[in-house]
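Per your request, structure below.
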């Protein structure tokens, strides 16, 4: 039931995304532009400007939503989020290196750099927190925040040293869907599909691991393989989303908590809902950013951070109050 409700909200947000902007369109104009061969102004706005950004927002949100659920289950950490744990910052550094040092300007080109950055950041965070207890939420998050700060400093050094790199990077860095190439999502789709399939494959093992590693082994689950598969899935999904839309923090965190509250802690049950909820939340952030400061707009990454930061603070405060 919750899945149907969120799906309906997503459909409404798609229509709103196609209609809302510096030039507002009526629902009739949107439908006519989508399903007719007219070449008027409304058709150009819908097909060349708003449809690409809408599809990119759905794509990135679905990837980050699934990654957030998988990461929470794999780390058993309610604060786990690709943005908070440094994965997005690592992918961002990879993209900056691709732009600044190799002259790569397309998503299909710098996605490989994003993959390397995301994987390296994920490995460093978990290595730094390896000495902590598995359920120590604060230690893992602090490692991720420290790494994110370090990588962000490197990104700033690179971009400030080269004006051309800064110009190419500055709109991407705030998590904006404006002026996205229509082929970006299609170029990155194969990597996202592999990540989604891996998430589905490891979902059963993650559910079994919640019962304990010994019982999971008795049920035929290999914990190391599940962890490796989860890590690869998270890396692929985060790298694809970050390459397409820029760093979008808190989306995975918000989705993981919303889905868990709606359907419980089963990863296998949560994945479809996480994809739809992540897409809806990201698209809602993009649409909201267009209407709160007309005639300009606030980037979706900023809106998502504004929504997610209070949740993170509440979770940390609640953790401190627990005995």
């Amino acid at each position: 039931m919750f899945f149907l409700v969120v799906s309906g909200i997503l459909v409404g947000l798609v229509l709103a995304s196609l209609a809302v902007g510096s030039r507002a369109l009526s629902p009739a104009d949107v439908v006519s532009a989508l399903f007719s061969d007219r070449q008027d102004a409304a058709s150009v706005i819908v097909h060349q400007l708003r449809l690409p950004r809408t599809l990119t927002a759905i794509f990135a949100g679905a990837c980050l939503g699934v990654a957030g659920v998988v990461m929470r289950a794999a780390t058993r950490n309610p604060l786990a989020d690709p943005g908070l744990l440094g994965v997005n910052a690592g992918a961002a550094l990879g993209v900056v290196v691709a732009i600044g040092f190799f002259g790569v300007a397309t998503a299909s080109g710098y996605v490989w750099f994003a993959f390397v950055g995301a994987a390296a950041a994920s490995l460093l965070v978990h290595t730094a927190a390896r000495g902590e207890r598995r359920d120590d939420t604060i230690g893992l998050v602090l490692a991720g925040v420290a790494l994110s700060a370090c990588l962000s400093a490197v990104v700033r050094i690179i971009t400030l040293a080269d004006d051309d790199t800064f110009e190419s990077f500055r709109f991407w860095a705030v998590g904006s869907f404006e002026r996205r190439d229509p082929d970006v999502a299609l170029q990155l789709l194969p990597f996202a599909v592999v990540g989604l399939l891996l998430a589905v494959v490891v979902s059963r093992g993650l559910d079994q691991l919640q019962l304990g590693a010994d019982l999971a082994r008795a049920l035929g689950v290999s914990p190391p393989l599940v962890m490796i598969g989860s890590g690869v899935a998270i890396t692929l999904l985060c790298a694809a989303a970050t390459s397409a839309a820029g760093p979008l923090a808190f989306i995975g965190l918000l989705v993981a908590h919303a889905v868990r509250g709606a359907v419980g802690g089963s990863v296998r049950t949560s994945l479809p809902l996480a994809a739809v909820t992540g897409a809806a939340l990201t698209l809602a952030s993009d649409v909201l950013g267009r209407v709160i400061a007309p005639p300009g707009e606030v980037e979706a990454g900023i809106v998502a951070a504004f929504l997610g930061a209070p949740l993170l603070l509440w979770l940390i405060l609640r953790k401190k109050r627990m005995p």
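DSSP finds 13 helices and no strands in the chain.

Regards,
D.
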